[in-house]
Design a protein that fits this description.
With 350 residues, the protein is of the alpha/beta class. The protein folds into 2 domains: 226 residues, P-loop containing nucleotide triphosphate hydrolases (Rossmann fold, 3-Layer(aba) Sandwich); 112 residues, HprK N-terminal domain-like (Udp-n-acetylmuramoylalanyl-d-glutamate--2,6- Diaminopimelate Ligase, Chain: A, domain 1, 3-Layer(aba) Sandwich). The protein has 15 helices and 15 strands. A 6-stranded parallel beta sheet has the order 2-5-1-6-7-8, with helices on both faces. Helix 1 crosses helix 14 and helix 4 packs across helix 6. The radius of gyration is 22 Å and the shape is elongated.
Length: 350
């Protein structure tokens, strides 16, 4: 059994990469395990650990949540365990990971936190890599400059355990340029680039239900579509004459406007719209009839437009990966942009 640690320099993206790689290796006939050994919590109490629960379903592992995410701990307590009780804590980590990886070809380990802003998670990642003799894939967001000296320090610390880096959320319009420049830079440093992944609106999306919750709204039509993904958000157009062209610019969107702007709502329903988010009260009968015809959910929120937009923005920042459509999008990205041949060679897989 080989341990593969997925770590991140910046927050976000680890679960998606774990899932995509795990699904690909599993589909190729390998026995795959997964564990998120450490869940850092605000109060130390166990929480749902949604990422681990979703991974168990996505990879069809069969393990319960306690096995997939065994250690729930406050940050200060984690620091104490890693610095003052390292031997016992490392033994606890190894026992949990050995159990999760029993009879598996590869155990995918999701590291807590990120290197850039979290010294406790940084120490945890180094500890896991060393004590479990894990190979490491380091995820870097394009929002950081991949030439940052701290990234090279992380790579140096990981040493020969580092399989390579993956650059995430690069602008699609610049993907080939970023790929060439990134590969050249890291090659000079002796570090492999396993992939440069473009930004994906699907992966950044939230569900209709999550939007409704974020704005304290009520879904008054097609509640059964609460699980559909919203990839973009648009405000009401300024002029009815330009509304349809304006709304046609983006697909799979939520359109936010005031309840009295039936013209804007009707124009939005003529384009690829996942849901309407209406400020104030229930929209007009003509809008509801059109929404019923197009099978588009309608959310009503007793807030002004600015409050609604703020709520949606917060939901987008905290968007999780727990959606099968996101898994499909990630596996497709990796199929076209990730060097599985290099990964398999590093893990000793045929």
């Amino acid at each position: 059994m080989t341990n593969l640690l997925i770590a991140a320099y910046d927050p976000g993206g680890k679960t998606a990469l774990c899932a995509g790689i795990g699904k690909k290796l599993g589909n190729s006939g390998k026995k795959i395990g997964y564990i998120k050994p450490i869940q850092v919590t605000a109060g130390g109490a166990e929480d749902q650990c949604l990422d681990a629960a979703f991974m168990g379903e996505a990879l069809e592992l069969g393990e319960n949540r306690e096995q997939l995410c065994p250690i729930h701990i406050k940050q200060e307590e984690l620091w104490r365990c890693l610095s003052e009780d390292a031997e016992n804590f490392s033994s606890r980590l190894k026992t949990a990971c050995d159990k999760a990886g029993a009879d598996k070809d590869v155990l995918i380990i999701e590291s807590p936190g990120s290197f850039k802003h979290d010294q406790v998670s940084t120490l945890a990642a180094y500890t896991i890599a060393e004590k479990l003799d894990a190979r490491v894939v380091l995820l870097i967001c394009w929002c950081s400059d991949y030439r940052e000296p701290d990234i090279l320090q992380v790579a140096e610390k990981l040493g020969s355990r580092l399989v390579g880096v993956v650059l995430n959320q690069a602008p699609s319009s610049k993907i080939n340029i970023v790929q060439a420049e990134c590969a050249a830079y890291f090659k000079e440093k002796g570090i492999a680039v396993l992939g440069v992944l473009p930004e994906s609106r699907v992966l950044l999306g939230v569900t209709v239900g999550e939007i409704a919750s974020a704005v304290d709204g009520e879904i008054i039509a097609f509640k059964d579509k609460a699980g559909e993904l919203v990839e973009n958000v648009m405000l009401g157009a300024m002029s009815p004459d330009s509304a349809r062209d304006y709304y046609s610019r983006l697909r799979n969107k939520a359109v936010v406007t005031r309840c009295e702007r039936a013209d804007m709502l009707l124009a939005a329903l003529e384009t690829s719209t996942r849901c309407l988010v209406v400020s104030g009260s229930r929209p007009s009968t003509s809008v509801m009839i059109k929404a019923e015809d197009k099978k588009v959910p309608v959310i009503v929120a007793a807030k002004d437009i600015n409050e609604i937009v703020g709520g949606i923005e917060r939901s987008l920042v905290g968007a999780g990966f727990q959606h099968l459509q996101k898994l499909q999008a990630m596996t497709a990205l990796l199929d076209s942009r990730f060097d599985y041949k290099a990964l398999n060679a590093a893990l000793g897989l045929k």
